[in-house]
Each structure stands twice: as structure tokens, then as C-alpha cells.
Amino acid sequence: MTEKFEELEIRLLLEALFQRYHYDFRNYAQASIKRRLRQAREQLGFATFSAMQESLLHDAATLPRLLGYLTVQVSEMFRDPSYFLALREKVLPHLRTYPSLKVWVAGCSEGEELYSLVILFREEGLEQRTLFYATDINQDALMRADAGVYSLDRIKLFTENHRKAGGKSSLSDYYSAAYGRAYFDKSLRSRVVFSDHSLVTDAVFAEMHLISCRNVMIYFDKTLQDRTLGLFRDSLARKGFLGLGAKESLRFSQHARSFTEFVGQEKIYQRRVE
Ligand SMILES: C[S@@+](CC[C@H](N)C(=O)[O-])C[C@H]1O[C@@H](n2cnc3c(N)ncnc32)[C@H](O)[C@@H]1O
Fold first, then answer.
1. How far is the CA of 33 from the centre of ligand 1 (A)?
2. Most CB atoms within 10 A, among 11, 115, 145, 191?
3. In this structure, are strands 130-136 and 101-106 parallel, antiparallel, or unpaired?
């Protein structure tokens, strides 16, 4: 493989992916996208990125295989429990003053963050007045999120996180275990709308009271992070809340002035009234 052409081939491959399927990875952080593409090329058995591009253009089956490499599905329930504790203790008392609520989990992966929020809202008596929107670009992940089935091996960690997040019930109240899996209760999905939505190419979701988007923007370059933050600002109701992941922040963004820090340490912001 000629190293010299690698950059050009990758650019052409990402352009083909966009032109042919409308998946736009052109402004993802370069280093990690290259690493993932190299891994995909090796493991899918292509000699060059050009060969991979040809297959992508002519064989639709290559698309889901490639997307599996380009999107990262690492998640856990109540991940970074102090974030959920801060939502419980500091944000939910404000949300309680609204008669109806809309929550958007952007980049929901296989549903771990979504179920954490639904459980949190249920424990705090707010679930019935809330509509949850769970979005992602990876359709396999969305299908798994909708199924709500996780390996029992992961439940110990989820339970520990839930406890640290101030859980008022036992996590086992929300699932039944069988054949090495935990099947989360259907009722947790009764107020959830799942949808295929890209933060790169799709439009706003209106009048959200809380947007939780964690460990997604780390994969974007600065331009894309700014676009996403603009999308969130326009999707939030007045004084709505935005929760980002531990490694993400509004600092250095052109939209920083549209928000105030609400719980700085947990990267929870509130939309400023302009
Ligand atoms: C590492 S997971 C984060 C899961 C969860 N939010 C958490 O913090 O545990 C990143 C998710 O972002 C999704 N994603 C990547 N690019 C996206 C985009 N442009 N629009 C929406 N979701 C995207 C991926 O498919 C993946 O499910």
C-alpha cells in the first residue's frame, strides 16, 4: 500500500460514502478516523482504500460493515455516575416546574444512556410527563437500544453506577434475567421515540428541556463540534439544559456565549435567555 496516497484515498473514500449514502464522516477528527479506517481495511480484507471504495460503491453490503468501524459503541448505564447524580440533585428540581418535558439523548448508541435517564426520571416521578427522543446514525445500535437487552456480565457495573448515581430503587426492578441476558422492561420504552438522526447532516429537534450528548463530539473536528453545539442551542427551550461528556466542553466554541455553566464539573450547561 502506497503511504503517499493514503491521505488522498481516504478523502475520496469518505467523499464516496457521503455522495453515495449520505453518511458524512468528512469532518470527524482525522487521527481517529484514519485509525479506524486502517483497521477496517485490514480486517475486511482490502488491499487498498481504493478497493474498499469500489466495494462500497458497488456492493451495498459493505456499508453496514464499514459503519461498524466508523462509529464507536462503547457505553454503560449511568456512565460517570456523578453526572447522573448532578442531574438528579440539581437539574431535575428545575425541570419539575414544567408540566411537560422533552429530553433528547443524541448519539444514544445501544441505549445505555437512554435507559439510565428514563430510570432516573421514573425514580424522581417525572417519567410520565416526559417524552424521550433517542437518536443515532448507527441503525444496528438503534435496534439494540429498542430491544433493551444486555449481557448479564455488564449488570454488576451498571448496578454499581446506578447506586453511585443516587439510585432510589434496585436496578433489578427494571429487568428480568434469562439465558445470560438482562431484558429491560418494555414499560421503560413507552415514552421513547427512537430515530435515525445525524448531528452532522440533519436538522434541529425543537423545544427540548434537556439534551444529553456525551462521548460523541470527541470524534468530531472543531468545525463539526461548532455545528453540533449550534444545533443544540437551536433545539433547546429557553433555559433548557445541555449535558456533555467528561472530555467535552463548550470552551473555545463560538456558541459558548449562548450558555452558562450550570454544574461546571459535570459539563452541564444551561441555555442563556437572549
Ligand atoms: C461512544 S458512543 C456514546 C454513547 C453514549 N452517549 C455514552 O456516552 O455512553 C458514540 C455514539 O455516537 C454515535 N454517532 C457518531 N456520529 C454521530 C452523528 N453524526 N450523529 C449522531 N450520532 C453519532 C455513534 O454511532 C455512537 O453510537
1. 14
2. 115
3. parallel
